[in-house]
């Protein structure tokens, strides 16, 4: 059964999340910029080995195998952010690195807020990841996006309790140790900043830790 137009629109936040979850050293920065407005920046890199493995798997699911095609391009990421509701989107690529940024014009009415990932008040901004947020993104997605998420076998999404090391072993049993280690040991950096930039919160954890969260993880900045 085909997904409805609404579900296809909401697939974009999941695709943005999957970009982060399957990348090397992903970085997310959210900066409050006004009343119910924020700036979002995403950057990450992809090794050719990881790209070829994941695109081959995705091609097999879609009936089209092209291991030489890039997993994400700058234009892809820009399109995903626009479909998520961001404005003034720009994107660039340099070697294996891809970066994009844009404005979330109404945080409280955004798809990210609907998924419980981003919340904003007059004096605070918070970014949240955890099982409930992953499930919300998954439920919003179309079948193709869900199939991609299923490939990652995300414990925080499936409800399975695994340590990061156990999750690495699970991925290794399916895709080999090199890809598994690259995905789960990659460092994830998140920064939340106040409007004037004088106050910010930065945290770092591995993607293995992020995808095996047993409960929500919240990063907040107050001003």
What do you see in this structure?
The chain is an alpha+beta fold and about 220 residues long. It has a six-stranded mixed sheet. A three-stranded antiparallel sheet has the order 5-6-9. The N terminus is likely disordered. It is globular, with a radius of gyration of 17 Å. Strand 1 and strand 2 form a beta hairpin.
Provide the succession of SSEs. Answer: HEEHHEEHEEHHHHHEEHE
- Measure the end-to-end span: 47 Å
User: Structural class, from helix and strand content?
Assistant: alpha+beta
In angstroms, what is the radius of gyration? 17 Å
Give helix % range: 40-55%
Largest sheet: 6 strands, mixed
Average of the residue pLDDT scores: 81
Strand content: 25-35%
Low-confidence stretches: 1-11
Order of the strands making up the biggest sheet? 3-4-2-1-7-8
Strand count:
9
Quaternary organisation of the protein chains: single chain
Count of DSSP H/I helices: 10
Give the helix/strand layout.
Blueprint: H1 5-21, E1 24-34, E2 37-45, H2 48-62, H3 74-83, E3 87-94, E4 97-104, H4 111-114, E5 118-121, E6 124-129, H5 131-140, H6 143-152, H7 155-158, H8 164-175, H9 177-185, E7 187-193, E8 200-206, H10 207-211, E9 217-222
Parallel strand pairs: 1-7
Antiparallel strand pairs: 1-2, 2-4, 3-4, 5-6, 6-9, 7-8
Provide a quick synopsis of the model.
This protein has 223 residues and is an alpha+beta fold. It has helices at 5-21, 48-62, 74-83, 111-114, 131-140, 143-152, 155-158, 164-175, 177-185, 207-211, and strands at residues 24-34, 37-45, 87-94, 97-104, 118-121, 124-129, 187-193, 200-206, 217-222. It has a 6-stranded mixed sheet. A 3-stranded antiparallel sheet has the order 5-6-9.
């Amino acid at each position: 059964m085909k997904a409805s137009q609404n579900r296809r629109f909401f697939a974009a936040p999941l695709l943005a999340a999957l970009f982060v979850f399957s990348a090397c050293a992903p970085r997310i920065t959210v900066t409050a910029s006004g009343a119910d407005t924020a700036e979002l920046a995403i950057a990450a890199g992809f090794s050719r080995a990881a790209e070829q493995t994941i695109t081959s798997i995705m091609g097999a699911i879609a009936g089209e195998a092209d291991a030489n095609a890039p997993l994400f391009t700058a234009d892809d990421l820009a399109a995903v952010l626009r479909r998520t509701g961001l404005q003034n989107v720009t994107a660039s690529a340099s070697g294996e690195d891809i970066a994009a940024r844009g404005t979330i014009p109404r945080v409280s009415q955004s798809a990210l807020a609907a998924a419980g990932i981003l919340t904003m008040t007059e004096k605070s901004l918070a970014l949240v990841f955890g099982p409930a947020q992953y499930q919300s993104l998954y439920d919003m997605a179309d079948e193709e996006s869900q199939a991609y998420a299923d490939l990652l076998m995300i414990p925080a999404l499936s409800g399975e309790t695994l340590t990061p090391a156990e999750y690495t072993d699970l991925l290794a049993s399916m895709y080999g140790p090199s890809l598994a280690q690259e995905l789960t040991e990659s460092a994830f950096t998140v920064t939340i900043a106040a409007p004037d930039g004088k106050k910010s919160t930065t945290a770092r954890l591995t993607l293995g830790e992020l995808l095996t969260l047993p409960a929500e993880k919240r990063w907040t900045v107050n001003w």
